[in-house]
Amino acid sequence: MRHSTIGTARRKAALVLAPAMVAVALTATACGGSGQTVSSEAPKKQTRFEKRAAEIEQSWPKVDKTKGRHRDMLPIEAAQPPVKGENDSLTVTVGHGGCETKYGARVHETSKLVIVSGWSKKDEKADFCTKQIVTDKTKVELKSALGKRTVVDAATGKTLMTG
Question: What DSSP element (H or E) covers 11?
Answer without folding.
Answer: helix 5-28
